[in-house]
Amino acid sequence: MGKHRIGEHTIAFPNRPRILSSAAVVGPKEGRGPLSTAFDFVLEDALYGQKSYEQAEHAIFQEACERCLKKANVPKERVQALLGGDLLNQIMAASLAARELSVPFLGLYGACSTMAESLILGSMLVDGGYASPVLCAAGSHYCTAERQYRFPLEYGNQRTMAAQWTVTGTGACLLGDEGNYLARTEMATVGQVVDMGIRDANNMGACMAPAAADTLKRHFLDTGRKPKDYDQIITGDLGRVGSEILTELMEESGFPLRESQYMDCGLCVFDPKDDVHAGASGCGCSASVLSAMILPRLHTGEWKRVLFMATGALLSPTTSQQGETIPGVAHAVVLEGGDEA
Amino acid sequence: MQQKADHNQARERYMELVKRLTPKSKLGQGCLRAFWVGGGICMLGQAIADAGHRWLGLASADASAFASITLIFLTALLTGIGVFDKIARYAGAGTVVPITGFANAMVSPAMEFKPEGWVLGTGARLFTIAGPVLVYGISASVIVGILYYFIRW
């Protein structure tokens, strides 16, 4: 057993790696939402002056990474690793951004759980003394996700009430072992893949909620903590349906979540009037909310300690059409605010 | 064996929970909207056919074709300027069932896959949505045609 393990699925970071800076770049619809002024940059147009939406997704990813580095005043030559991914096949947005940034690159895919996955692996690299600073990022784009998973953009169809809207945007964080910081990573619980047999690709919240409940329960059992030990427990993109399911599942498992200390990033991004049904989703959802809302609140001391858990539906249109069910995964990271700042 | 039964039971219980907490589509509202928009499109088609018959002197078969062509053109135009999907989001089956739905199913992939080029993009992906309708629609009509040849009623 590894020496930094606590229980079966949780690991501790004894040196508590620092989140030195963060940045979020989002599309126009996200910019109209409640976090509008908290994002670093809001695009006027989802194409962002590019020839295709895939190119735009790449440009947004790169822009977020560059802004994050600039805020920490770190030149890109000093970055020792970029850990990141997106929803495109072959994670091309992250790969193309890594090509332009010319930094050592480890591409990740965890569907919408990618931001937490990159924070966990980035914290391990920094904590173990293998790399610092490390850039962690995750992004998605509504227009590329629609064509890959659903229909052409201009195709006229109705969305079901449980459907979610993919966030156009990227969030990036710079992790390091020294200097001023926004927050620190204390420990993490790596989730396992959970599948309760949901086949409906229009109900992602229901696909991911059992994985979220599983990871949360394991986290509490491993650490001996309770939900009240956190100022806020934050899920990635369960949306309205998924968060209601999670609340019921946690009630059953004996770790009930109070409404005032549980939130879902999927319900913070869009204006509810914007016809997004069950809320936001996508890698960029939890990543941009982390940068625009969670880290600033930890920095100001409004929150002392939160559990950030990004959730992913491991959906492939091919296996889904072949009748396979949609498995979910959720990874949790404990973030602590600047008590020593 | 017991473990598998427990697992299935847990899955069934979860399905029930999902069913209870997932909001349902508004069936009554959907039907009403589909009815009036779909009916409106059909009335417009009839008006175009009548106009072609009366003022352009078209024979009644030609007037029907004229109505189809006009509706397809209007749909393609509205799809191209990004309005059609907004109407369809409101109307649902009201825009899918008439010929407008078919026209939109052809134009939207043609636009979507243009960045991949004329051959491998638009050319290859043009029928992604309408393809199955064509394959099974034409197959069904061939079968009915053969049956009709042998069994005349």
Number of strands of chain A: 15
Report the average pLDDT across residues of chain B: 93
Alpha carbon gyration radius of chain B? 22 Å
Structural class of chain B: mainly alpha
Q: With helices defined by DSSP (H or I, 4 residues minimum), what is the helix count of chain B?
A: 8
Q: How do you describe this structure in short?
A:
The complex is a heterodimer of chains A (341) and B (153). Chain A is α/β, with parallel strands linked by helices. Chain A contains nine helices and 15 strands.
Description:
The complex is a heterodimer of chains A (341) and B (153). In chain A, the strands form 2 sheets. In chain A, strands 1, 2, 3, 4, 5, 6, 7, 9, 10, 11, 12, 14 and 15 form a 13-stranded mixed beta sheet that branches. In chain A, strands 8-13 form a two-stranded parallel ribbon. Chain A folds into 2 domains: 18-176, 3-Layer(aba) Sandwich (Peroxisomal Thiolase, Chain A, domain 1), CATH 3.40.47.40; 183-336, Stage V sporulation protein AD (Peroxisomal Thiolase, Chain A, domain 1). Chain A is α/β, with parallel strands linked by helices. Chain A contains 9 helices and 15 strands. With 153 residues, chain B is an all-alpha fold. Chain B has one domain. Chain B is built from 8 helices and no strands. In chain B, helix 6 (99-112) runs antiparallel to helix 7. The longest helix of chain B is centred in the N-terminal third of the chain and has 29 residues, at 27-55. The mean pLDDT of chain B is 93. Chain A binds chain B through residues 51-52, 54, 147, 151-162, 196-198, 203, 206, 210, 241, 244-245, 248-249, 275, and chain B through 10-11, 14-15, 17-18, 21-25, 30, 79-80, 82, 84-85, 87-89, 92, 95-96, 101, 104-105, 107-109, 111-113, 115, 128-129.
